[in-house]
Every structure is written in C-alpha cells, then in structure tokens.
Amino acid sequence: MTIENLKIPTVALGTWAWGDSGETGDGYFGSGLTRADLEELADRAHAAGFTLWDTAIVYGMGRSETVLGEVLKRYARNDYLLSTKFTPQAAGGGEDPMADMLEQSLGRLGTDYVDLYWIHNPTDVARWTPRLIPLLKSGKVKHVGVSNHNLVEIKLADQILGEAGFRVEAIQNHYSLLYRSSEDAGILDHCRNQGIPFFAYMVLEQGALSGKYSPENPLPQGTNRAQAYNDMLPRLTALTDKLASIGRSQDAAVPDVAVAWAIAKGTTPIIGVTKASYIDGLVRASRIKLTSDEIAELEALADAANVNTRGWWEKEMQG
To answer: Which 3 state secondary structure label does DSSP give 54?
Structure first.
C-alpha cells in the first residue's frame, strides 16, 4: 500500500482554528468564523486544487470536525481528502478506544471513511499502533500516519504495521524556519529515503512568521499564542524583513515565502486557513522558487534569532 494514489496537494489545509467557539479567550485563536466565510474559503481552495483538509478530534473537542463536515457537504466525497487523528490522551475507556474515536470522527465529518488517519502523539507506540490495522482492513481508514513521533517511534510503528502488510505512510510534525528539529533528528532524511510524505505543521508559527505582527503590533492579547510568541517578536524582525524582501521580488507576501521555504525543503505544509484570501497566498507560495542562497540566508537568520518555539505538547525529536 502506498500513499501515492492520494495525490497529495502541494499544500494541505489546516482547521485547528475552526475548533474555536469565537468567544475571546476560548480556544487557541479566539477567532469568530461564519459558515458563509468558510464555504467561500472552501470554494476557493477547491478551485485552486487544494483538496486535503486536516483536522483532529481535539481541535475544539469536536467542533472543528463538525464544522468541516458541514462545509464539505457541498462537494462529492471523492472531490476532497480528509485527514483526522486519534489522540491517545483523549481516549475513552472502552474495549477499543481508537475504533470508538474514529466512529465519533466519522459521525461529525459526515463520512464513512477517512483518507488519512493519524496517531496524534506517541503515547505507548506498541499499544496503539496495532489498533490501526483492523481499521485499515475495514476500509474506514485508507492510509495511516504518525504525528509528533521521533525517529525511533516512527520505525517501531512502521515495523508493527509492516508485520500486517501495511506501513507508516505519512509523518506530521511541527516544522518551520524557527523549528527544524525533525530535520536535525534525521526524520526528513528518513522520509526522503523511504518515499514517505512529511507534513509540516506550524510553518507560520501561528502568525509569528506572517509579517503581520511586530514588537509594535503584537499578537492579540489574551490568546495563548500571544503568550507564546510576543516576547520573541523583537528577535524575529531580521528574519521577517528578509521574508518580506524576497516576497517583494516575487510579487508575494511574507507568509507566502515562509510556506514556499517549507515546500522547497520537500515537505507538505499544513497551513491553517480561516479566510478565503489565505488561499490566494497559498497559490502564490506554491509558485515561488527559492534559490539555495535564499534558503541558506533565511535559515541563518532563523538560527540567529535563537528562539525555541516547541509546543507544550511536543518533546524533543532527538532520541
């Protein structure tokens, strides 16, 4: 089984923020999203050929999956790809918590299968990985991946699946100019060698690399991301200035260049989308060709910023 027939788009669409209720302080982004806005966004994404939607049960504890399922009702099921996740930390106490969680996700998403099902975090790889096998055999899950796993855990999961004739078909980790631990730990090389797609999340560091925020214009107070990033903004100025100058030469904006960097590194960025205009940026990003000198300069400026953007849910990838 390979994931090639999934025809993974250049960029995948993230719906973490779709789990917000819209009330300030509730959820990670405090965003108020309307159904009409999201339908416009989906239509623009669809027209641009971005068809892979990534969600998870823990994004708003079901809200993201529910909203996504409603928005995608306007298309035939074979016109888009659904990616969602089993999160061990949220597992129930039944006989087969993974199968139970999948059924809940299918119900909210309004479908009878998901194209890509992930184990979200590596809590007891030997316990949870075998649970994917009956789901693959049932057809309710077409392909499987692991998220936030280090190389040892990836190889163990692959070995367990391999004994049943399956394999780890995708990796999803935090990867950005500011956080390249999956590269340092050899995970990107492993993916290249094995022909496994690597999905990069938090490529824009929740807006800190969007060019929209600066020490003078910090991220919105009262949000978790303001707490995580606002103190770093002065150290990111040189990097975001360079992203902006490359963008000007390519008729593109700062986030487009940051996304283009992730594409140039051989990854599939998962970019959170909350406005239709974001899709235009992803179209631009997918057309940008960065030179090796530009990539090296961006990475040198990122290293010089010397910030650690590892999420509270993540462990170091070395090991």
So the answer is: strand
Residue 90 burial (CB count, 10 A): 15
Its pTM stands at 0.94
Domains and CATH numbers, the chain: 7-305 (3.20.20.100)
Q: How far apart are the first and last CA of the chain?
A: 28
Residue keyed to tokens 């600066």: 214
For residue 179, which of 295, 262, 291 has the smallest C-alpha distance?
A: 262
| Average pLDDT over every residue of 71-75 | 95
Amino acid at 157: A
Read off the tokens for 135. Answer: 């789901």
Report pLDDT digits (tens) over 150-193. Answer: 999 999 999 999 999 999 999 999 999 999 999 999 999 999 99
Q: What are the Cα distances from residue 61, in Å, to 23, 108, 142, 281?
A: 15, 11, 23, 29
Query: What crossing angle do the helices spanning 35-48 and 63-72 adopt, rounded to 10°?
Result: 60
How far is residue 263's CA from residue 285's CA, in Å, rounded to a whole number?
Answer: 8
Q: Are residues 257 and 285 in contact, defined by beta-carbon separation less than 8 angstroms?
A: yes
Chain segment 90-139, per-residue pLDDT in tens: 998 889 999 999 999 999 999 999 999 999 999 899 999 999 999 999 99
| 189 vs 200: CA distance, rounded Å | 14
